[in-house]
Amino acid sequence: MRRLGWPLTALVLSSLLLGLVGCSSSTPAGSTSGSGTASGTPDTAKKLKVGVVFDRGGLGDKSFNDSAWRGIQRAEKELGIEVAKVESKEEKDYETNLMAMADQGMDLVIAVGLNQGKALQKVAPDYPDTKFAIVDGQVEAPNVRMLKFKEEEGSFLVGYLAGLMTKTGKVGFVGGMELDLIKKFQYGFAAGVKTARADGELLPAKYTGNWDNIDSAKVAANLLFDSGADIVYHAAGRAGLGVIRAAEEKKLWAIGVDSDQDAEAPGFVLTSMVKKVDEAVFATITELSKGEFTAGEKMYTLADNGVGTSEFTQTKDKIGEANIAKLEEIKAKIVSGEIKVPATEAEYTAFLETLRK
Fold this sequence. Notes:
Elements: H1 2-23, E1 49-54, H2 64-79, E2 82-87, H3 93-103, E3 108-112, H4 117-123, E4 131-135, E5 144-149, H5 151-165, E6 170-175, H6 180-196, E7 201-202, E8 206-207, H7 214-226, E9 231-235, H8 241-250, E10 253-258, E11 269-275, H9 277-289, E12 296-300, E13 307-309, H10 316-319, H11 321-336, H12 345-356
Parallel strand pairs: 1-2, 1-3, 3-4, 4-5, 5-12, 6-7, 6-8, 6-9, 9-10, 10-11
Antiparallel strand pairs: 11-13
Helix pairs in contact: 2-9, 3-4, 5-6, 5-11, 6-12, 7-8
C-alpha cells in the first residue's frame, strides 16, 4: 500500500504545480513586457525582431560594420525593436549564422557585406516568411532587399580634395579584397584627383587581401608614403585603420572610409568618404515596421546624401573655405549629371579622355 500511495501523492503534487504554473502570467518572446497600458488594456503589440550578421571585420572596425550597427541601435531606441547579433569569424560561418538568425524567428535578418551574398542566396529560399537585407551584395529573391551605394561618387569628392591638397602631386589607394566593389572606390577617387590636378600621379594601388589585418594595411600605406605619396585613401574596413596609423606616424594624411574616421588621428585624416550604411539599415527597418518592405535593389547616391564627405571637423582650417567651395561646386556637377563618375577601369580610361579635350 505504501508503494502505491507514494506515486499517487506525487501525481497530485505534480498536478497542483502544473495548475500554479498555468495560472501565472508570462510574456511571450517578442511581446512587450509589462501589465498593459495606463487604461488597463493589455499591451499585445509584437516587437519587431531584427538580427544582424556582421562581416569578418566585425564590430569595432570604426568603418563598415560599425556603421550598420549604428543603424540597428537607432532602430532599437526609436522603434523599440528586439535585436540579436552575431560576428562572423570565417567565411564558412556566414551560412550558419544567417540560418541561426532565421531559426530564432527574426522578422528581418541583415547581412552586412557582399561576401555574404553566396550564403544568403542559399538561405533565403528556405525561409520565405523571413525578410532579409544585404549590404552591397547581389541576391535577387522575393524576400531580399539589396542595399547599394554609389561609392564612386563619394570617392570622387575625396579624390578631388586630395588633388587640391597634395603637395608632392602623388597620392595612393589601399583596398581590402580586390573586388569590383572596391574598384569603384579606387577609380572614383582617381578620377577626382585627376579632375582637380591634371598632373597628379596615382601610385599603383595596394590591396591587403583581407578586411581585418591592420598591420598589412599599414605596411601597404607606408610603401605608398615612402614612394612619395602624401595622401592615402583606404577602402579596407578594419584593416584600413593601419593606413591611418601610418599617416599619423609619417605626419601625412590618410582619408577614411564608410564612417567618419577623422577623429581616429586628429589632424592626420584629411576627410572620410562617408557611406550611410546606418541610414540605409534604419530606413529598411522603418519600412518593415510600417508594412512597406519591398525586395530588390535600393540605391543610395550623392544626390540623396547616401554617400559624401565628413564635416572636416579636424581639418577645415587646413583645407580652407576656398577649397571647400570648390568641392561644393563639384558635388553639384555630379548631382546634376554634368560629371559622370567612373566606377570601372574602362570607364576611368574613357573619363581621362574627356579631361584631355
